[in-house]
Amino acid sequence: MLKKFTGLLTIGAALLGLTSGPAAAQGFGLQIGWLTCNVAGGPGYVLGSSRPINCMFWRGDGPPEHYVGQVTKLGIDIGYTQMATLYWAVFAPGFGAGPGWLNGAYIGGGAGATVGFGVGANVLVGGYQGTINLQPVSVQTSLGLDVTAGVGGLTLQYQP
Predict the structure, then answer these.
(1) Closest CA to 71 of 98, 110, 33
(2) 97-113: b or e for each residue (b if 16 or more CB lie within 10 Å)?
(3) Which residues, other chains included, contact 27 with Cβ-Cβ below 8 Å and sequence gap of 6+?
(4) Which tens digits make up the pLDDT trace of 62-89?
(5) Is 130 helix (H, G, I), strand (E, B) or coil?
(6) Which has more pLDDT, 145 or 157?
(7) What is the reported pTM?
């Protein structure tokens, strides 16, 4: 697991190196860590779906933090998807973030399509006073058949 996470961090660092100029220009702030989330599988419905999520926030300046919550999709979401893992780089206005700073609701546009092994990406904004940005580092991976389009949402609750 550690080798896989280290490999993802290396890939993420390379991707962020390519996007650090635009990210800074768009006001993403400083990268303060990485968020890794496991999303439960389940059916989608024509008007959307909601699935439980279990996350670990790997901070650059402190111990990892555990979060639980829900991922929601509003709009067209038809099919069944197996468990997926999402990886985000976490950006905030500065490094003063304390434990639980990722608490809250996030919203962003999302689109994806999977048949068998698939990919998709979501950029989300929310958390502490709407100042946290979650930028995809690794696209989500899933097994199944699912077609989605619409607005994605995420709710995180800190678990000390």
Answers:
(1) 110
(2) beebbbbbbbbbebbbe
(3) none
(4) 899 999 999 887 555 556 666 778 888 9
(5) helix
(6) 157
(7) 0.67
| Number of C-beta neighbours around residue 4 at 10 A | 9
**DSSP code string of 4-56:** HHHHHHHHHHHHHHHHHHHHHHTT--EEEEEEEEEE--EEE-TTEEEEEEEEE
- d(Cα 108, Cα 97) in Å, to the nearest integer? 22
Structure tokens at 156: 């995180």
In angstroms, the CA 73 to CA 122 distance is: 11
- Cβ(42)–Cβ(81) below 8 Å: yes
CA–CA gap between residue 117 and residue 145 (Å, rounded): 9
Domains and CATH numbers, the chain: 30-158 (2.40.128)
Q: Which amino acid is at 58?
A: W
